[in-house]
């Protein structure tokens, strides 16, 4: 039996695989209540599920205030050493160059987070140029929200950016978010080697994740949850109960994201 399934049925934390959540958040969200949204509560859930690490951006950073939110992200990383890495959120309307200069060399941050839909600015716009330059120069991965049909971050925009910056690692958050989005995300990833599919969301299934791995490889697909916006246990279940081979499941759950975070050791 899959050891992850065995651990779940025995109601104990799994210890077989290093799980890294590639798409998580922290803190309250302004539009609705999220219970236990702080890092301490998140660690308790992670411990219960055997999740070793999560890469987080504060809800404050992605929604209202990038400067205050990036500081909150750094503080959350400090609260649980070794359990969190931060995403540096860049809002194109809120001093992107200043935020990159302030936090780009801070080891608490292992990636950049973009949310074009929330920020009402297209992924292909020139205000993101400092992000692509930084990512090209350092190897820092960039997680962007994607949603099929969005005016700000649909899959053709991801491909346009990936074509213009072939050396940049772009995590397509939610992998397009809808069944048609998954189809398009796979097509983009097949054409653009720098595009990684991140699988959190409300619409995908274990079968969708297995197909992504079959089409583009386990080294191009990463587990994410949107936790605590969405409960990580639901996202974990889709991967744990999928028909992936054990080595592919381990790569999706943590091996691939662990590799993508290693860029930081080479930054001068």
UniProtKB/TrEMBL annotation:
<protein>
    <submittedName>
        <fullName>Amidohydrolase family protein</fullName>
    </submittedName>
</protein>
<dbReference type="InterPro" id="IPR032466">
    <property type="entry name" value="Metal_Hydrolase"/>
</dbReference>
<dbReference type="Pfam" id="PF04909">
    <property type="entry name" value="Amidohydro_2"/>
</dbReference>
<dbReference type="InterPro" id="IPR006680">
    <property type="entry name" value="Amidohydro-rel"/>
</dbReference>
<feature type="domain" description="Amidohydrolase-related">
    <location>
        <begin position="20"/>
        <end position="262"/>
    </location>
</feature>
<dbReference type="InterPro" id="IPR032465">
    <property type="entry name" value="ACMSD"/>
</dbReference>
<keyword id="KW-0456">Lyase</keyword>
